[in-house]
TrEMBL record:
GO terms for molecular function: adenine deaminase activity; zinc ion binding. Gene3D superfamilies: Metal-dependent hydrolases. Residues 9-324 form the Adenosine deaminase domain. The record marks H218 as: Important for catalytic activity. This is Adenine deaminase. GO terms for biological process: adenine catabolic process; hypoxanthine salvage; nucleotide metabolic process. One of its GO terms (cellular component) is cytosol. Catalyzes the hydrolytic deamination of adenine to hypoxanthine. Plays an important role in the purine salvage pathway and in nitrogen catabolism. Belongs to the metallo-dependent hydrolases superfamily. Adenosine and AMP deaminases family. Adenine deaminase type 2 subfamily. Pfam families: A_deaminase. The keyword Zinc applies. Substrate binds at D276.
Length: 324
């Protein structure tokens, strides 16, 4: 099965590129930029990745990304991930990035965009890997700040495949960002949002009704609301589920308790993704393998999940046909 899953062409639709920063690269960039890390070694960093919830992860995630300073750093970050993903049979990657987490540290948007753009082109050329870019807003920051970031990104609007919404979910409902997402819609930029990971099913409804998103990131708590499940199924809304992330952030206690089999049973369109592979113990292939081990899914199920990801990706028709 490992061989089959490795060779199955997979698309990753839910990845935070800053969460793909492995401790080895974190240490190399810290040295290059003469930054002091709070860890004595790579092993100590990995040992610190023991989370109790989303916020305890976010604290280390924002601290870890402090080593990213130059366009070259962002290039190296993305290229390091693209190489690993390609090695495990990933043919297309849609990456969220968090401009506010860099702007607040004095890293200008053009630095981030230049680094990520160079890496995307190199991945296409050297690995045959396509990618999409999702500019995410931090929902625990004011909506006005998100709007300023969207306006500041004017030179890059053409390069954005979507805008997204991430960071601490509870207490930060999608409705807070209605104006920002309306502006994105007016600009013709597609929209996605994290909802129903730690937050209630109501946030999923709100993301659909008020933000007009085309995909829900996570969405696993929809099962608490049967009418919502029926709606997601009827409208064919795709959920980008991240099983190892849900275990590590204690959304579920054990992978065996994960709602994925019930979501599948309910007829929802699902994809399997890694979220923050460097922090949650594995990439897309590891997430597929964990599902195989926990749920005993057949090849046909994985073919369907991988197919859904390619259908739901921000891809041109030509590339989509080539991947199907
Ligand atoms: C994130 Cl809400 C969330 N989940 C996982 N990774 C993240 N990075 C930023 N926000
Ligand atoms: Zn996420």
């Amino acid at each position: 099965m490992r061989d089959f899953l490795e060779h199955l062409p997979k698309a990753e639709l839910h990845l935070h590129i800053e969460g793909s920063l492995e401790p080895e690269l974190m240490f190399a960039l810290a040295e290059r930029n003469r930054i002091q890390l709070p860890y004595a070694s790579v092993e100590q960093a990995r040992a610190a990745y023991d989370f109790s919830d989303l916020q305890s992860f976010l604290d280390l995630y924002y601290r870890g990304m402090s080593v990213l300073r130059t366009a070259e750093d962002f290039h190296d970050l993305a290229m390091d991930y693209f190489r690993r993903a390609s090695g495990e049979g990933v043919v297309h990657v849609e990456m969220h990035f968090d401009p506010q987490a860099h702007l607040s540290r004095g890293i200008p948007l053009p630095v981030v965009m230049e680094g990520l753009s160079l890496a995307r082109r190199a991945a296409e050329r050297e690995l045959g890997l396509s990618s999409a870019l999702i500019m995410a807003f931090l929902r625990d920051r004011p909506a006005e700040e998100a709007m300023q970031v969207l306006e500041r990104a004017a030179p890059y609007w053409e390069m954005l495949d979507a805008v997204g919404l991430d960071s601490a979910e509870r207490g930060n409902p999608p409705a807070k960002f209605v104006e920002v997402f309306e502006r994105a819609r007016a600009l013709g930029i597609p929209r996605v949002a994290h909802a129903g990971e730690e937050g209630p099913p109501e946030y999923i409804r709100e993301a659909l009704d008020r933000l007009d998103v085309c995909r829900i990131d996570h969405g696993v708590r929809c099962l608490e609301d049967p009418a919502l499940v029926a709606r997601l199924r009827d409208e064919g809304i795709v959920l980008t589920v991240c099983p190892l992330s849900n275990v590590r952030l204690k959304v579920v206690e054990r992978i065996e308790d994960h709602p994925l089999p019930r979501l599948l049973e309910a007829g929802l369109r699902l994809t399997i993704n890694s979220d923050d592979p460097a922090y949650f113990g594995g990439g897309v292939l590891d997430n597929y393998l964990a599902c195989h081990q926990a749920f005993g899914w057949s090849r046909e199920v994985f073919i369907e999940l991988a197919g859904t990801a390619i259908e739901a990706a921000f891809l041109g028709n030509e590339r989509r046909l080539a991947l199907h």
